[in-house]
Amino acid sequence: MFDLIIRNANLPDGRTGVDIAVEGTKIAAVEPQIGALARTEIDATGRLVTPPFVDPHFHMDATLSLGLPRMNVSGTLLEGISLWGELRPLLTKEALVERALRYCDLAVSQGLLFIRSHVDTSDPRLVTVEAMIEVREKVKPYIDLQLVAFPQDGYYRSENGVASLNRALDMGIDIVGGIPHFERTMDDGRASVEALCRIAADRGLPVDMHCDETDDPMSRHIEVLAAQTVRFGLQGRVAGSHLTSMHSMDNYYVSKLIPLMAEAKINVIPNPLINIMLQGRHDSYPKRRGLTRVRELMDAGLNVSFGHDCVMDPWYSMGSGDMLEVGHMAIHVAQMAGLEDKKKIFDAITVNSAKTMGLEGYGLEKGCNADFVILQAADPLEALRLKPTRLGVIRRGKVIARSMPRIAELSLDGRPELIDSGRDYVPLG
Ligand code: FE2
């Protein structure tokens, strides 16, 4: 007798009609038609059951603050940063915690159970750090939240940048961040990358930097990040977030850069929603898309995972905690619409992101944590197309969220009475 069996599931790898049995908090079996019974049984009715969505790049301290203290008029990254600077002195721990917890509620309902959040360390009060550490504890039963010490105003450019980042790490922040393209000079940016990688090596921590989030093709801090990663023996533990300047770089230079990044095993984190909104703002026409070179990086064997980055904050007024919306945008902006392309995009918001975050026990194999999401879709391709309802969200063997299927009733002569968008489709496997 198992604790839980999900029956008749389609899996992201194309298997159909599979049962998933759970004992306690772990997956005990993944097989067709398991004969044993369970205390709780859920019929997935041929829907997709996937490991939870994973967001490797978010800003939990800024989320849901849209309009405080005013809106971003130009819509640019730089106005977003200065707007956040206006809001920062007004932030209270209580309000930060309350907004973050509300976002986490939304994330759970979307089957998003693993989030890496950057936390701004620029304000020496470090109220953001205190608040996000509290949130990390509070959500632990349902969301794994990793925190990055992020010197938003610059590690060297901000008066308190160096000291505040180190204090944040002393307080228990998990990962070393940075923003080299925002330092005063290219040289300061290069020096910040070196100093931050040294801190990570000394403290035994991973690195995740906002890197080259600009349309300037000469913003080449990713090259330095890759080189310092190798120098300090941090291969596989370093992430480069955004990397939008690569979009505009000279092709010959990129032909040298990508192998260097592969050697350093850099985890690449593009953020397609925010960067299609923010980049190319100084262009008239044609306007650059500003997304990094997703296909080329994947083809070179780099681990590429997509982040949501922002929801309802000074930089981005949209967003819903739905990683399928992120993948949907990636398909368009990276022009990856082929069947195999879409499977890779789905991986980028699930297994690749789990790898970036170093998650243990993630997946749909025997022995993995019993965490999964049942979607109102047949397979990953349909999930990316429809951004469907999360019928059930299971964490460590317990149902923690459920939603009614989205079904429309039609009143049309001679036409069907009901439309279940996740049924009007033959899975492609
Ligand atoms: Fe970011």
How many helix segments? 14
Instruction: Strand order, main sheet: write it out.
Output: 3-2-1-4-13-14-15
What class would the helix/strand composition place it in? alpha/beta
β content, as a range? 15-25%
- Portion of residues in helices? 25-40%
Low-confidence stretches: 425-429
* Number of extended strands: 17
Q: Report, as a whole number of angstroms, the end-to-end distance.
A: 31 Å
**CATH class identity of the largest domain:** Alpha Beta
Total number of distinct structural domains: 2
Within CATH, the superfamily of the largest domain carries the name Metal-dependent hydrolases
Overview of this protein structure:
The radius of gyration is 22 Å and the shape is globular. It has 429 residues and is an alpha/beta fold. The model is unreliable at 425-429 (pLDDT under 50). The longest helix is centred in the middle third of the chain and has 18 residues, at 186-203. The strands form 4 sheets. Strands 3-2-1-4-13-14-15 form a 7-stranded mixed beta sheet, with no helix packed on it. The protein has a 4-stranded parallel beta sheet with strand order 5-6-7-8. Strands 9-10-11-12 form a 4-stranded parallel beta sheet. The protein contains 14 helices and 17 strands. A hairpin with a 2-residue loop joins strand 14 and strand 15 (398-402). Helix 6 (221-231) packs parallel to helix 8 (251-263) and helix 11 (323-333) crosses helix 12 (339-348). The chain folds into 2 domains: 2-51 and 363-423, Urease, subunit C, domain 1 (Roll), CATH 2.30.40.10; 53-356, TIM Barrel. Fe (ii) ion binds next to loops.
